[in-house]
Amino acid sequence: MQAQRQRKVEVTTAELSRRLLGASLRPSMQRLAVLGDLCHHYDHPTVDTIYSRLHPQMPTLSKTTVYNTLRILCEAGLVRSLNIEYANQRFDGHLEPHDHFICTGCGQVYDLPHNRAGRLPDFGDMGLHVEREEISYYGLCRECQEKR
Ligand SMILES: [Zn+2]
Ligand SMILES: [Zn+2]
Description:
Blueprint: H1 13-22, H2 29-40, H3 47-54, H4 63-75, E1 80-82, E2 90-92, E3 98-103, E4 109-113, E5 136-139, H5 142-147
Parallel strand pairs: 3-5
Antiparallel strand pairs: 1-2, 3-4
Helix pairs in contact: 1-2, 2-4, 3-4
């Protein structure tokens, strides 16, 4: 499998609505747009990137609304936030288990296949119950290696 960066995937509005309703969220225009953006792109965008992609079609949309919508979608488990950069929080609409590779040259975030069969480590003997994991690898992508 190739490391994935910009793969575009089509998810229908009906499917986005179904996901929102399944999480007891009203499928408002803003929620459909923000969730759609994250489901259609694999580039782990920041709030600014999502805003700049949606604003041309939704001139009344504010950055605060994008931010608040992301918070609601995260709390509902429909998207996840990635803690890979201190200053710029990034978001991921792809919930199937996968790891990330962050290029320290260009900052791109690549999806990596998750080879552990979805199993979480067991720290039960330490009294800890693991609910999710977030694994990131750091290095240089192919393009940045070729530039050196
Ligand atoms: Zn790179
Ligand atoms: Zn991802």
